[in-house]
Design a protein that fits this description.
transcription, DNA-binding, 7 helices, MarR family transcriptional regulator, 3 strands, about 170 residues, MarR/SlyA-like, Arc Repressor Mutant, subunit A, transcription regulation, about 65% helix, mainly alpha, globular
Amino acid sequence: MGAGRNLLFLREEELRLAQDLLFFGYRDFTAGPDQILAELGMGRAHHRVLHFVGRRPGITVGELLGILGITKQSLARVLTPLIEQGYVLQATGRNDRRQRLLSLTETGEALERRLFERQREWVMQAYREAGPVAVEGFRRVMRGLMGPAARAQLERLERPAPPRPGAPPLARTG
């Protein structure tokens, strides 16, 4: 698309191209981690849990449910094996014993790091090729694709994590 074209009047074909770009970009962005996860009998749902628990050590199960937008049953199908296989630690909250606080174990941190490194290379290469103005435009477009709830969750993730009284390591459950 030439510079100076008025993007306020996008044609259907240009919008379909945007869908194609998102599809193929996501497919290739996730291919490396998908391969690593498949070797471990895991999938993208496991990756999402590892990612967000790694981003926010001590995250509550409720907060994770909100970020992922899934049911408790769906999360349990993914989280239970991650806990049983030693990737995630689940601890009881000190102030509210009903809370379950999640953090990565050393094994979980190592796997999350390995997955991140595969994707980091893709992002770094794309950012270098596109340049800083395009990177900022990409971020604006991605935020524009998010609904208000997702933008609010992203803003919370971008802020430094507040210290959690009673954050792991605590009494292990599960």
